[in-house]
Amino acid sequence: MKRNMIFLMVFLLSLTLNSQVINEDNPRKGHWDFKPEKIWEVDKAGENEFGVIAELLVSDSSKIYVRDFKHNISYIFKENGQFLGSFAKQGTEKGELSRYLNRFKAENKIVLGTPEKLHFFSEDGVFETSYKNNLFIRFPLVFLNQKEFIYAPTFPQSPVSQKKLMLFDLLSGEDKLVVDFSQTKNAEKSTPLALMVRIFGLTPQVSLAACEDNICFGRSDQYTLYMADLKGNEHLSFKLDRQRKDVSLEDKKNHLIGSKIPQDRIDTLVEQLPDKMTYFSKITIIDGLIYVYAVDTIERNQTKQKIDIFSSDGRYLFRGVLTFEKNQKFSSPSNLVLCKKYLYVIHTTQDGRQKLAKYRITHPEY
């Protein structure tokens, strides 16, 4: 990331968005078919079968990373599916993790988060250094470089009206407000938040995507997204006029069944969870187009992912639906990664086994 992103974000503090594109829930160019074509799939890390893998990540050099939560270790694969090795097992020695929580990219580094630290590894899984960071307070949305990242005040603890992006410097330990988009003239009423577990598609959160000279960000319980280039020459917001989908108590209970949450707490939690799904769960920018992972269900495993595709000037162009052969299932959007030419996914078979797969896909030319 270029450092002038920081100056752009500071610039955004004082700007008033001078244009908003309001889109009807009817894409201008209709349906888009990604035409996924499987290239390879694997169900083992070397000679070892997968336990419970998740947290799929693809580096800029096309190396693929997953975390095996049953065996408490991370795996690396080459872009052709060949297993390269494992790293960051659970433990207390150098390069080991006390408790894995999430993974990130920081330029050419892989960053693994524990509750109290961010641990930096090379793309080959070699441990390099660690920095103190409370992941429950500062959860990175995107790293600008290897020392700075943008985060949003943690939901659901933050106030209902709070929609902010903050910049944190790992070296100085200082953080600063870079943009507050809480009180714009286009603000919408937020859904009340409660202390709860984080569930994709149900718990509101701020999402942000960055690619070269574009950033796009928004809060998932409001389908208004904000966009700016890194030079600050353009800025806009765009909205999709869509109704949020209801979610039943039964759906919420079904989602929590099989989790580590004690049964006597599930009934209390489902009462606190929102009664409506969020609009989206993830944002990605590819070749100037904005891909928004739309929320259609909170089921743990699903057979399709709806994706809204917008132009860089906020126009709703295509509605895409990703499906796979034989209606193969996958779990959360964190197990589905779109890239320029390829798609990576963690499938779950009918008997509960998992497979890591790579597909060739097509994108709109616009």
Structure characteristics:
five-stranded mixed beta sheet; 8% helix; 41% strand; 366 residues; single chain; mainly beta; 3 helices
Concise structural overview:
With 366 residues, this protein is mainly beta. It has helices at 4-14, 249-256, 263-272; strands at residues 20-24, 31-32, 37-42, 44-45, 48-49, 53-58, 64-68, 73-77, 83-87, 102-106, 109-113, 117-121, 127-132, 140-143, 148-151, 164-169, 175-180, 206-211, 214-219, 224-229, 235-241, 280-286, 289-294, 304-310, 316-323, 329-330, 336-338, 342-348, 354-360.
Q: Helix coverage percent of residues?
A: under 10%
- The poorly predicted ranges are 1-17, 156-161, 191-196
- Proportion of residues in β-strands: 35-45%
Overall, the morphology is globular
- Largest sheet descriptor: 5 strands, mixed
Number-wise, the strands total: 29
Polypeptide structure, described:
8% of the residues lie in helices and 41% in strands. It has 366 residues and is mostly beta strands. Strands 1-21-20-19-18 form a five-stranded mixed sheet, with no helix packed on it. Strands 2-25-24-23-22 form a five-stranded mixed sheet, with no helix packed on it. A hairpin with a 2-residue loop joins strand 22 (280-286) and strand 23 (289-294). Helix 2 crosses helix 3.
